[in-house]
Amino acid sequence: MAESVLITGSAGFVGRALAARVRAEGLRCLGVGRTPRDELGYHAIDLAEEAGSLTELLSRERPSLIYHLAGGPGGGARGIFASNVTTTLHLFQAVQAVPGYQPRVLVAGSAAEYGELGAEPISEDARERPVGEYGVAKLASTRLALLARRRGLPVGVLRFFNIMGPGMPGSLAPARFSRESLALAAAGGGCLTVGDLTPVRDYVDVADVVDALWTLGQREPEEEILNVCSGQPVRMGALLEEILRQVGVRVEVRTAANLLRGPGDVPVSVGDTRRLERVWGRRISFDLSRSVARLLESLRAR
């Protein structure tokens, strides 16, 4: 039987892309998610509710590598903590319930854990100061992962900055800007309503994220936490300008008060890449034009 890899949140944005990579590498991919899907190797298990079903799956399949990608920023405070903290707790309870089982585990963290730390690139050693429920929940998930590591499990946390690319959630700025710009182009122009365009973010293409996940998963995690980032600041206004340029549409851009900064937003979030470069041996270079082109191509193909 071929070696197997398990992905929680395998139906999500990054999960789908990673599952395709795992299969392309010739390994068996076991997917876990809340919603039933007619897909080979997929198991409908709600980790926010219980750990027993996952324990049974792990006992039977014993995957050598687990990617914990389940979770997200939606669902209100209760949903955020259930999908990000409770799922992580149940994952490690399930792993620890299988006698003699020591898989490598990579847990998805988030730049939201850092919060508002100024304009300088943020290193993994920075003291976290999350400013919203999602950041607090992801930090709690990280703490659970590091607790499992201190108990002897080979665990690492990858703190993703802003990921973009084909298949990204439509609610995120790059996808929303792109979708609405394409619609306005088809209509011959119009008005595009946006929020604050001054924030600066560190974008990473989903293809680079999958490369990092795959490569770093091939050995025991060397570091407790690694930023997965490009270190390249991108102003939200510049992102919108590039999308409009590639779509080839002239629009009126209006700012709406209800789309301005929310409680979890920060003005600048850029990561320090040095630890990732040392461990991985390469640097992620984000090409805004290329990533926007890939995103637009995927939306046009729908």
UniProtKB/TrEMBL annotation:
Membrane-spanning residues: none
Gene3D superfamilies on file: NAD(P)-binding Rossmann-like Domain, UDP-galactose 4-epimerase, domain 1
InterPro entries assigned to the protein according to its UniProt record, in alphabetical order: Epimerase_deHydtase (IPR001509), Lipid_A_modif_metabolic_enz (IPR050177), NAD(P)-bd_dom_sf (IPR036291)
Ranges where the NAD-dependent epimerase/dehydratase domain occurs: 5-229
Pfam families according to UniProt: Epimerase
PANTHER family (alphabetical): BIFUNCTIONAL POLYMYXIN RESISTANCE PROTEIN ARNA, UDP-D-APIOSE_UDP-D-XYLOSE SYNTHASE 2
Protein name as catalogued: NAD-dependent epimerase/dehydratase domain-containing protein
Source species of the chain: Archangium violaceum Cb vi76
Lineage: Bacteria, Pseudomonadati, Myxococcota, Myxococcia, Myxococcales
